[in-house]
Amino acid sequence: MQPTRTIHSYSDTAARGQLCSVRLPLFIAWLSAGLAGIHPVPAAAQVAAPPPQATSPSPGAIKQREQELEATRAQQKSAAELQAKLKADIAAIGQDRSKLNAQLIDIAAQVRGVETRIGDAEARLRPLDSREQQMRGSLDSRRSEIVEVLAALQRAGRRTPPALLVRPEDALQSLRTAMLLGSVVPELRGLAEKLASDLTELVTLRKTIATERDRLAADRDKLRDDQTRMAALVDERQRKQSAIEKDMEAEGARAIALSRQVDSLQGLIGKMEQDLKSAAKAAATASLQGAPAGKPNVGALKDPARMTPAIAFASAKGLFALPVNGSKIRDFGRSDGAGGAEKGISLATRAGAQVTTPCDGWVVYAGPFRSYGQLLILNAGGGYHVLIAGMERISVNIGQFVLTGEPIATMGTRSQVASILATNASQPVLYVEFRKDGTPIDPGPWWAASEGEKVRG
Known about the structure:
alpha+beta, Ferritin, Glucose Permease (Domain IIA), 2 domains, 11 helices, elongated, disordered N terminus
């Protein structure tokens, strides 16, 4: 039986030798290329390249340019089709104000929903990107360790490792097969397993990041289309409003002239509602018609043809949605940093974010004012006013009645409110203030605690 054992031992040794000759070069190839896959180095950086010569474009480059041209044509065709559809939609609306309002509120809600998804996706990507950088740094920091392993494997395999550049996925597959070398080179198994684990995490991270970025790109495309649609609807709304109010442009110029004569917000409100025809008319209507008292009827907000508030402001506590997507950076009653207290709240937003009305009301001022940038003031009836400032562009006019959730303005790319500039100049900030009979009040009780509780038009 002894000869049999000897033959067995010899066969096993031969098999291992074959495994070594086949697997070792593969493992060496991966290790020699792994770090290059983390930080790719162009071949020109390793071998001196000859001086560049003028050459004709390669077939691959020509094909890529053709594909880019085709993509551009497809985008142009899509934009043209969208414009044609918008014109058809607007023509179908005709003079029906309620249909126009309903579409505006619906598309504004969609825009804000996409903005929320984009913000969530970006928040998910930040830690993923950070983890990927950590993984790359970890692998990069072990260069010397891998070099030592390479040297040992070269001696064991007696072959020069080929100069390969592989993807992490290829490297991972090579490593998994190379781990079989544990029976030949046991001391390398621990390192191989650790590297395999790191590469698996890196590959998974890259796939997750790619998926998130694809979703983000799709949402950004949808946001762009929705914004185009909303801009067309807003233009149509304002065109019809201008047709009703013939002297609207003159009223706007007069409002700005009057605003220069006052120093305070309360003075501005009083000046507008007394001296400006359209604002005075809006204020009078608010005082005369007001809103239904008693328990709020949220169902009344579904009527897009209404011309008075569906819910009394005083009875709408806990129902209003914030006018913009963002994070609160200043709260009512907190120190304003200048020895006083905040009279409203400040929300840091995305650049170009959509601003909607938190409630029904009449516009009594829309334009620049002092250090507030672009300022919008709504008379909500019952002695309540809502002041919104910091936008880049306002899309409603003085005297206009606006509905809950209706788009009224867009944010810019930086803060427009002077009091915010010193601490947060690089990010757009929206300022919101509620007033009752001229006195600032805490808006906190009016905001909905959750998405499901917010009132929608």
